[in-house]
Amino acid sequence: MKSLRFAVRLTPRGGRDAIDGWAEDAAGKKHLKARVSLPPEDGKANKALIALLAKTLNIPKSTIRIASGETSRLKTIEVYGDSATLGAKLSEL
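-> structure tokens emitted (93 positions)
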């Protein structure tokens, strides 16, 4: 099974669960901006992020994992599945 990796900048306690589109950092690296309403305690925000991505991309939660950045705002997400289809869905966000 193929996988696709991308960066996400997560804002916990963001008032609502939403994907705010793509942005670039100072170095020019792209990341997806996401916000969740839950706090970062006990991994709640990470679980909410995975649920949000699964709903947005219309894929099972079990195919998404946080590859790095569990305790950081900037996370690397790994999604398992057809990388061409996933890439197309991600580029539309």
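The chain has a mean pLDDT of 95.
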